[in-house]
Amino acid sequence: MLGLPSLSQIGGCFFGEQPQMTDTPEAPQIAVNDMFYVLRSTGQYYPATIIEGRVNEHGETEYFVHYKNRDRRLDEWVTQDRVDISRKLNPRRELASPSDVRIEQSGRFTRNQRRKIITELRSTSPQQDPVSLDSTTEKLELEHQEFTRIKFIDHIQFGKYEIDTWYFSPYPEEYRRLNKLWICEYCLKYMKCARTWVMHMTEVCRQRQPIGKQIYRKGDLVVFELDGNEQRLYCQNLCLLAKLLFWTIKLYIMMLRPSCFTYYVKWIVRDAT
């Protein structure tokens, strides 16, 4: 019987243990699960729950917050000066609205999502019995909630574009704790700093398009087909990148078993001049 490994057992390439917070800020006025008015980038204060705290690489105290009645993709790290400690709220009272309860529980799978996961598992493990599949789905659900609770990477540099991320992605621990990640737009290799990225792009990487088989082209639009069994590393990196931008269940299955899937990449050919 082909069993599905847990997210925490993958290790090595990704899915290591959840990063442990070091140098947790000592701020008796602010604690995890407290609610305060927090200054958003729009210049307005909004009720938010404190999810976690840390001291960043610049020695600044930061808190990861979830804004009331807002999608989880808007969760962010904010510096301590953006938290108005004079305006503390009662979490039970503030989370009483049905809409916010729904958002707070958005880490759990819906009935339809659970069916989709079981379908995916059955297609990749046809010999597993329904009871085992349901148990595996429950385990995935619990691990999914834990792994996606906190987003560490806020931005990525992808080619000439700096892109804001929306969700957690299980990069190796030494990378996922960075505020910004530098990614090669050709091979999807990820790096910690601009200097390494520039050197990689100019001197190391010789790839100038996705690997795989070209199956369609019209004008400057090209589509490539990739076999997850043959291009395993590229496909894993593709899933890690996609997970920063999409909250989708299938990405977890694809990252666990890249060799079981076929991937398609749409590519825009740029004028060399």
TrEMBL record:
Sorted alphabetically, the keyword list is:
Acetylation, Nucleus, Transcription, Transcription regulation, Transferase
Quick check: keyword Transcription in the entry? yes
Q: Name one GO molecular function term.
A: histone H4K16 acetyltransferase activity
The record's section on Pfam families has: MOZ_SAS (PF01853), Tudor-knot (PF11717), zf-MYST (PF17772)
Q: Which PROSITE patterns match?
A: MYST_HAT
Q: What is its EC number?
A: 2.3.1.48
Give the record's GO CC terms: MSL complex; NSL complex; NuA4 histone acetyltransferase complex; nucleus
Please give the InterPro entries that the UniProt record associates with this protein: Acyl_CoA_acyltransferase (IPR016181), Chromo-like_dom_sf (IPR016197), Chromo/chromo_shadow_dom (IPR000953), HAT_MYST-type (IPR002717), MYST_HAT (IPR050603), Tudor-knot (IPR025995), Zf-MYST (IPR040706)
Q: Which region is the signal sequence?
A: none
Protein name (database record): Histone acetyltransferase
Which GO biological process annotations does it have? regulation of DNA-templated transcription
Q: Which residues form the MYST-type HAT domain?
A: 148-273
Q: Which domain of life is it from?
A: Eukaryota
Give the organism the record lists: Clonorchis sinensis
Q: What class of enzyme is it?
A: transferase
Provide the family line: Belongs to the MYST (SAS/MOZ) family.
